[in-house]
Automatic annotation (TrEMBL):
Keyword Membrane: no
Keyword entries, A-Z: Transferase
Pfam families, A to Z: Acetyltransf_3
Organism of provenance: Janibacter cremeus
InterPro entries hit by this protein: Acyl_CoA_acyltransferase (IPR016181), GNAT_dom (IPR000182), N-acetyltransferase (IPR051531)
Official protein name in the record: RimJ/RimL family protein N-acetyltransferase
Length: 387
């Protein structure tokens, strides 16, 4: 087995040309005929169908075509290099002879490589894919990759969790960048990893802590919480430009909330009635740039559906979120040093909420930017953690 002079990848006959890579319970190897029934199962899994471009319908004939492409990829200087993922038994957990596929797409010398992967549904939840990605990334860097890029359709949190766990840096969203089975194209997230970077999460993925008190339940926002998108009658300058969902924008609003938490920028709760679990609104702690960090500063926000007003819900929710945000990490909080908030000067209801939970005004603006391009007086508030 020799190395290709352009890419630095092995050359030789299949399957011997495919290097076997192992780390703990994860093993990368060449595919074989024995893997094809499991490949068919994987390719017909609903999540695989939704988030990949795998052909449909997919049968054993399709799987044999893929096996042939897998073999030829290792002999083509411009080919895609695939591995089968094998999950070995460990600590009483069963193994899976075929747990999925990972690939590398080498480019000309000096150009970024790319990676893609898909996991068999039976092997999910075991860390198999993050283990496979670390193995493939190390091999890529050992064979000349200057960087490794990951792409996925916006909203594919399962794939982003793998890249996030392996230390990839999220660079944002590109419009109409990847194929989408139903839409033709989809916006895409993009992230990268460099050879000298640790293959560990670069920022925390924030999960909302369940908080129950004062007749309220602060919990993660769910797909069925559409009631928070109840049409509202707030004056436009009282609300952030993209903070209040409508029935038409609820799905994108929810996606942006979850995206922010995956990047460590915010923690978002649904305000729910503790008895009925009826969604009443949202409360959040967030930063506009960077990520939430212990000892740092973040902003408090909240909004109620109109039918939930008049019961003190906003004040109670703001108090619970504030106390959690300023509580030390050792005591289960976020460990922030300072919370801030901004309100329209004439938003008496919101101003009363902040004053009621211990915020004080530290600044005033006579012509702050407001939604719709207007300029309005605004107040700036803060509350510090107990010393």
């Amino acid at each position: 087995m020799n190395d290709d002079p352009q890419h630095g990848v092995p050359t030789g006959s299949f399957p011997e040309v495919v290097p076997v890579l192992t780390d703990g319970p994860v093993r990368l190897r060449a595919m074989s005929e024995e893997d094809l029934p499991a490949l068919v199962e994987q390719s017909n899994d609903p999540d695989t169908v939704e988030w990949t471009s795998v052909p449909q319908p997919y049968d054993l004939g399709s799987a044999r075509e893929f096996l042939a492409a897998h073999a030829s990829g290792w002999s083509d200087p411009d080919g895609t290099l695939h591995w089968a993922i094998e999950l070995l038994p460990r600590d009483g957990a069963p193994g899976y002879p075929f747990a999925g596929i990972i690939d590398l797409r080498p480019r000309a010398k000096g150009e970024a490589w790319q990676t893609g992967f898909v996991l068999h549904p039976a092997a999910r939840g075991r860390g198999a894919m993050s283990g496979a990605l670390r193995l493939a990334a190390r091999w890529a860097f050992d064979h000349g990759a200057p960087s490794l890029y990951w792409w996925a359709a916006r909203g594919n949190f399962a794939s982003w969790r793998v890249a996030h766990a392996c230390g990839f840096t999220h660079h944002g969203t590109l419009p109409s960048r990847v194929h989408h089975r139903d839409l033709g194209s989809s916006d895409a997230w993009v992230a990268s990893l460099l050879p000298d970077q640790a293959m560990m999460p670069r920022r925390a993925w924030v999960e909302p802590t369940l908080i129950e008190a004062e007749g309220l339940r602060l919990r993660p926002i769910r797909d069925d919480d559409r009631a928070v998108a109840e049409p509202h009658d707030h004056p436009a300058h009282h609300m952030p430009a993209h903070g209040i969902p409508s029935p038409q924008t609820f799905q994108d609003w929810l996606l942006r909330r979850r995206e922010g938490m995956s990047l460590g920028r915010s923690v978002n709760w649904c305000i729910a009635d503790a008895t009925s679990d009826d969604p009443l609104g949202e409360v959040l702690v967030f930063v506009r740039d960077g990520s939430l960090v212990e000892g740092g500063t973040a902003e408090l926000g909240y909004a109620l559906r109109p039918s939930a007003r008049g019961r003190g819900v906003a004040g109670r929710a703001a108090r619970l979120a504030t106390e959690h945000a300023l509580r030390p990490v050792a005591e289960g909080g976020l460990g922030l040093r300072r919370l801030v908030a901004e309100t329209a000067a004439d938003n008496e209801a919101s101003n009363a909420v902040l004053a009621g939970v211990g915020f004080t005004v530290w600044g005033r603006e006579s012509a702050a930017d407001a939604p719709g391009g207007s300029a309005r007086p605004a107040l700036h508030w803060e509350r510090l953690a107990a010393q």
